[in-house]
Design a protein that fits this description.
The complex is a heterodimer of chains A (about 140) and B (about 575).
Chain A (H helix, E strand, L loop, with lengths): L3 E5 L15 H15 L5 E4 L6 H4 L1 H10 L6 E4 L2 E4 L6 H8 L37
Parallel strand pairs in A: 1-2
Antiparallel strand pairs in A: 1-3, 3-4
Chain B lengths: L2 E2 L10 E5 L6 H14 L4 E5 L6 H5 L8 E2 L6 E5 L2 H13 L8 H10 L3 H17 L1 H6 L2 E5 L3 H20 L17 H12 L4 E7 L3 H16 L5 E8 L6 H15 L3 H4 L3 E5 L8 H7 L20 H10 L4 E5 L6 H14 L4 E5 L6 H4 L6 E5 L2 H17 L4 H11 L2 H17 L5 E5 L3 H20 L6 H11 L4 E8 L2 H16 L4 E9 L8 H20 L4 E5 L9 H6 L1
The chains are: A alpha+beta (about 140), B alpha/beta (about 575).
Chain lengths: ~140, ~575
Amino acid sequence: MKKMIIFDPAMCCSTGVCGPSVDPELIRMSTVINNLEKKGITVERHGLSTNPEIFIKNKQINELINKEGVEILPVTLVDDEVIKTKGYLSNEEMAKILDVPSESLQSKPEDDGSPCCSEDNTTSDSGCCGEDGCC
Amino acid sequence: MENQFNSKGIHLTKYLFFTGKGGVGKTSTACATAVNLADEGKKIMLVSTDPASNLQDVFETELNNKGIPIKEVPNLVVANFNPEDAAKEYKESVIAPYRGKLPDSVLQNMEEQLSGSCTVEIAAFNEFSNFITDEKVQKEFDHIIFDTAPTGHTLRMLQLPSAWTNFISDSTHGASCLGQLAGLEDKKEIYKKAVETLADGEQTTLILVSRPENSPLKEAARASKELYEIGVKNQLLVINGVLKTHDDQLSENLYKKQQDAIKNKPNHLQQIKTYEIPLRPYNVTGLNNIRAFLTKDNIMYSDDILAVDEMKQLKDIVNDLYNNDKKVIFTMGKGGVGKTTIAAAIALGLAQKGKKVHLTTTDPAAHLEFVLEKSDDITLSRIDEKEELKKYSEEVLSKAKETMSKEDLEYIQEDLRSPCTQEIAVFRAFAEIVDKSKNEVVVIDTAPTGHTLLLLDSTQSYHKEIERSQGDTPEAIKKLLPTLRNEKDTEVIILTLAETTPIYEAKRLEEDLARAGIYSKWWVMNSSLYATNTTNPILKAKASNEVNWINKVNDLSKGNFAVLEWKPEEIKGEALLNLLS
């Protein structure tokens, strides 16, 4: 199994919703990593603000940011090799490297299989169909 | 007639929280209680959590966030934790270990991320929790007295423990959204203990302070309910500034108005044990006045002479705003100085001159529709924190739903429950309203000073972030800070009363605005007794004490100020016109 590590710049939260605007790239990455996790594939992810220590300990990333500065982030390493800087891998690239079908990384909105859900109750904490799951 | 509030005869728990709308006398009451208890031989710690605290002015001593013993009061230690300093310390503690180990651009990135209002709030809350849970403090002192920030902010802070603890324990994908605050997980126990202490009636009393007026009483009722809901049930109400005698028209009007407000206080407050403090003829600064505050009157007339040639009126300010074609007008100042009324009067004045006006408020306790009716020329709105959060969440989720499954959505919902998100939501609403100034004059009645400062602060730090962000940031947000800094369009009117605290605060506000690059010219001194002809001894003493402050504001504003006389009635609707004539 290949080992993938992503180094993020400093940010408030991994989805970006607590920043000034939602970054679709961050949402996509959250989804992808979440889906991989469900398959038992762990992608390590480190944020500059949450875990600065690793930016010193990890030799590759430390060299990179010392040379290129913060602009180089986000950076993706696979088996200790830098494969992408200044942006996240696309779903296709991820799928190829980790050897999984690319469609399995992208959730489809239909996946929740609950056509009865209306637009306006998605914010409820318990999900759109109410607590008993019955629509 | 209610019982008079004093430090004896009332069962006092270890932790005492004084809360209420700005300008109701929380600080005076908290300080007087602290000093009286210390004089009785109790060991007392007094802590302020107000971003715009004035404990330094009251004790005439330089304070810090750890606690300074007060020389003249042997058993009293006073701490003032300024959230911005706390945030600075917190930021430094996070970054310091990496200096020299990570390149500067990287440290700078971390630093920017730690500059938002979120950090300020967290840092303040950290210190607050430490005080509540610190065993050394608990052992060393008989009572720990908190003089808290204006209500809106306090509520948030007191709600944070439960918000954070729920958030931390519910989080299934690690504490990702805690981001910079991931370290908080270690503090879970401290927060839990803080919440428990607050909810324990044997340990904690919440003292709601109000003026004998409708609006602060309503605010007290709101705070009381919300705090009750988060478990803080041991509550007292103190009504400060009750006039006891009346012997001329003005004092009779005031007396009647106060008694009506007390009699008609919200139902919710009727069930809470209530105390009163009489209206004092002096400002509470210096130890003599602090000691006397809960016990006796010292009527002293000031012999200051007015050194002002001409006192302007509100209509002069409205004319100036009109002639200079201002597009965004703020009324700012401490709570209780009449921001809403003045904002409404300015809106009305500009509408009468033919401008299209939008009047809005960010004050959680606002009630614009009671002050001014909307018309063809005037539209009204309110930035409600909870509403804005809901709106923002819906917007994010509907966008996310286009590409995400239900399970993934829950992941986002989790981040949306983070306490920082509310701040963002309010901030966006604020930007949208300022953006309306393209088509109409926008008059903004802002929340109490501390909150406003946080808002402006986030404007600046988010502005930096926006420049980097790849997300689609609304135009309104991109344009916010440039608009606020454009002195051709934007003007801040500083409101104060002719009293120590509001003036010191107004001065600090003016400095903060200057630092943020925001233009302000006019000052308004509201509710002046000097401008009336009262003969009542207490009111006359208060009026004579105003002269010194009017002179001071004359200097501070370079003569650009108006003085409005105290009015017995609630100023709304037609009566607003009187302010303009």
